[in-house]
Amino acid sequence: MSAQSPASMSLMEQELNRAQIREIFTSFNRSHQRCFTDCVNKFDRRSVSDSEKNCVANCVAKYMNTTQRISMRFQEHQAMITGGGAVAQGQGK
């Protein structure tokens, strides 16, 4: 395996950061679009009703909690694969 230069590593880290930010924004937009579509269905008034606001808030909260839980499980799984299984199993329970 060849060693990479610090500049090359920095560029790779920057690209990885950009990809992660892109994924965060994509996920955010997808969740809000989905929740808006599911919760807001009356367009005969200028403002969003309280029930629609509550529905969107609950939907987004559920989506965020689910995403966080999946991320934690993925990290635990990765830790187990790389040999840190004992540490990962004690977290998130």
UniProtKB/TrEMBL annotation:
Belongs to the small Tim family. One of its GO terms (molecular function) is metal ion binding. The lineage of its organism: Eukaryota, Metazoa, Spiralia, Lophotrochozoa, Platyhelminthes. It is found in: Mitochondrion inner membrane. This is Mitochondrial import inner membrane translocase subunit. SUPFAM superfamilies: Tim10-like. GO terms for cellular component: mitochondrial inner membrane. Residues 14-76 form the Tim10-like domain. Its main location: mitochondrion. Heterohexamer. InterPro entries: Mito_inner_translocase_sub (IPR050673), Tim10-like (IPR004217), Tim10-like_dom_sf (IPR035427). The keyword Membrane applies. It comes from Macrostomum lignano. Pfam families: zf-Tim10_DDP (PF02953). Keywords: Chaperone, Disulfide bond, Membrane, Metal-binding, Mitochondrion, Mitochondrion inner membrane, Protein transport, Translocation, Transport, Zinc. One of its GO terms (biological process) is protein transport. The twin CX3C motif contains 4 conserved Cys residues that form 2 disulfide bonds in the mitochondrial intermembrane space. Gene3D superfamilies: Mitochondrial import inner membrane translocase subunit tim13 like domains (1.10.287.810). Mitochondrial intermembrane chaperone that participates in the import and insertion of some multi-pass transmembrane proteins into the mitochondrial inner membrane. Also required for the transfer of beta-barrel precursors from the TOM complex to the sorting and assembly machinery (SAM complex) of the outer membrane. Acts as a chaperone-like protein that protects the hydrophobic precursors from aggregation and guide them through the mitochondrial intermembrane space. It is a peripheral membrane protein.
